[in-house]
Amino acid sequence: MTRAEPAILLAHGGGGRLARDLLRGVVLKHFSNTTLDALGDAALLQAPTGRLAFTTDSFVVNPLFFPGGDIGKLAACGTINDLAVSGARPLALSCALIIEEGFPAHDLEVILESMKTVLESEGVAVVTGDTKVVERGAAHGLFINTAGIGAVQDPAPAGAHAVRPGDAVLVSGPIGDHGMAVLACREGLEFQGELRSDCAPLYAPARALLMAAPETRLIRDATRGGLAAILHEWCEDRDWGVELDEAAIPVRPETAALCGILGLDPLHAANEGTFAAVVPADQAQAALQALHSLPATHGAAIIGRIRADFPGRVVLDTRIRGRRIVDRPAGDPFPRIC
Amino acid sequence: MNPLPDPMAPQAFRDPGVAAALARRIRRLAERTGPAALMEVCGTHTVALFRSGVRALLGDCVTLLSGPGCPVCVTPADIVDRAAAYAKTPGVTVATYGDMMRVPGSRGSLDQARAAGGQVRVVYSPSDALALAAKNPDMRVVFLGVGFETTAPAAAAAVLHARRDGLDNFMVLNAHKLIPPALHALAAMPGLKLDGLICPGHVSAIIGLGPYREVTGKHNLPCVVTGFEPLDLLQGILMLLEQKARGEAAVENQYARAVRPQGNPRARDILFQVFEPADAVWRGLGAVPGGGMAFREEFDAFDAAARIPLDIGPAPDPPGCRCAAVLVAAVKPPECPLFANRCAPDHPVGPCMVSSEGACAAHYKYGDLS
Amino acid sequence: MCLAVPVRIEKLTGPATGVISLSGISRAVDLSLIEDPQPGDFVLLHAGFAIEKVDEAEALRTLELFREALEQEGGQEPP
């Protein structure tokens, strides 16, 4: 560590004075609200009527800062989005931080500030949390776990059993941006330019979709493994498959360019602010218009449909009107030269 | 008339209307000339033919066979074993193209070596491996040099930079190979009935058209140097069928925007300044005279095999593996008994399944809608 | 073995190095393997090196051939 840059020490996780300083001076500075400020062992909340949605995720992204966001923004959006695509209004989040000894305090503040920005814009608060500090090498700078509860609203997605051949497959915006933006800044690749993660909260678009297409069958955000991963999960072991129209799938030019250079497929690249949905054919246009009316999802598109003739498969109708299978993504994509 | 599309934009070579027109011509010609078997030598062509949908578009009218042009697939397994051994050597870091990470050696892949604590870094360019060596003078960087004439010049240039900059901690585990000798070996194989070769566009950008004249002359095999966009592929196939219809066997260049008849002499000069042709074993073809490269003696200091000797012998092919036969199209991937059951991309037995452009991987990932 | 993509040389940064760009992304490139690289040239990018220049005139010629094929075949797309 150079000079006397403030850094997180093991003692900050120890429960003593330094821990209290970290909590009040850093965490509460960004997350302050009545419930959290009480610093009870548990947050006491008013239970909503109807069903509760409950989700959790851990965030271990490396690098912690990337074009378009950081691990904090990722964590806040990730949990909000899991609730949103389940048809739930996010009510409250928990946030657990596992900080590596020596992590710069300034970086921690920037990350918490990023989370706060998302939470404030979505009207959701962190009501409970935890902070631990681990020895150098035991965490890659910072790990974050968030859990979220939401109130399930009507209409909610019906589920896979409701899918019918002829249903439309939509995507809420261009695909592959997050995965490629993070890959581009890995050591040794160092591509500069317009690539930005698509990391964003999706409650408003998901809600707009469900209101415009009340019989929506499925919505999922297309995170690790990309669009291909969720489509495969959806149709696995079903008596229907998915047909995609390559020309209709939105991909930003910079994302397509990096995929071309590295031999990767945008269908397999991660997204953090984009969802796919299956809606009845006669509600597809309404769903699309609802998404287009929101600035965040002006790039939404109908990209395919459900078909009965290749059950369990995802098939791509290519730009030149040939056909090929879209395979399941296999682990972490390595850039290729071949 | 509409102006032509921007010739530097990839979309210009992906027009569906032109694709349909070329496909129609191909089908009509195939009806006249009878069944044609064409081999795409280059693994990148194998993948492009599948991913673009050209294979599906043409259907049965032409048989497309995948050849041995996948440098990962034809590299004997002991190279992976050597790289893994270097990765586990204290003070040594192996820098490799991503393509090699999941290829099984006889004792696991580089990905597995890394998980077990070995020092392995994925790089996009030999320049990155060089930069790693420059930034870490106490680290010995072994760059895994796999590839054909498209890729080897870059490795040679990196060696020259290392010499110029005094980077004595940079070395190359050399496994580079040369395509033309392998084409001769392939064309001479009994039982291989081919009507033409789809020749590798980017290898040809380096070597030019000359080396194929020997193949055409000696084996009466049409050769068309072809690009990688969908319309390039279709046009290349059409040109081969047209030669068959005329009873010709000539070398033609579909990819003239990137391939000059004389190739790239400067890249070749750099390549052969550092390396010289040598005999090499190609999985599938066996020993190919002049089919590989060796470091010239004056560059021994950059030859990992000379600087860090290892006691590693040739690795046997895994039992039941038919990669050798697949690589020369004696067996089509779905005909291998291990295909899609014991051997699949998540748990590959041989390199043809794990290589990003192995014929088996391509068939598994993109093919067969039946 | 042949993944190479046409990109544009934006500028030179040394006797044999430069920066290339494609659709809004850019990267350092090694130009040792080609003769007389100039900003504005299009080159094939492979493993961080420019391996050959892309000839615009030849590209246009190829596109002309495609256009002829389209016109002669009636220019319809298949069903």
Describe this structure in words.
The complex is a heterotrimer of chains A (338), B (370) and C (79). Chain A is α+β, with helices and mostly antiparallel strands and 338 residues long. Chain A folds into two domains: 143 residues, PurM-like, N-terminal domain (60s Ribosomal Protein L30, Chain: A); 166 residues, Phosphoribosyl-aminoimidazole Synthetase, Chain A, domain 2, CATH 3.90.650.10. A seven-stranded mixed beta sheet of chain A has the order 9-11-7-12-10-13-14, with helices on both faces. Chain A has a four-stranded mixed beta sheet with strand order 1-6-4-5. In chain A, strands 2-3 form a two-stranded antiparallel sheet. In chain A, α3 packs parallel to α4 and α3 packs parallel to α6. Chain A is globular, with a radius of gyration of 21 Å. With 370 residues, chain B is α/β, with parallel strands linked by helices. Chain B has three domains: 119 residues, Rossmann fold (3-Layer(aba) Sandwich); 149 residues, 3-Layer(aba) Sandwich (Rossmann fold), CATH 3.40.50.11740; 44 residues, no CATH class. In chain B, the strands form three sheets. A five-stranded parallel beta sheet of chain B has the order 2-1-7-8-9, with helices on both faces. Chain B has a four-stranded parallel beta sheet with strand order 4-3-5-6, with helices on both faces. Chain B is globular, with a radius of gyration of 21 Å. The mean pLDDT of chain B is 92. Chain C is an alpha+beta fold. Chain C has one domain: Roll (SH3 type barrels). A five-stranded antiparallel beta sheet of chain C has the order 3-2-1-4-5, with no helix packed on it. At the B-C interface, α1, α2, α7, α8 and α10 of B face β1, β4, β5 and α1 of C.
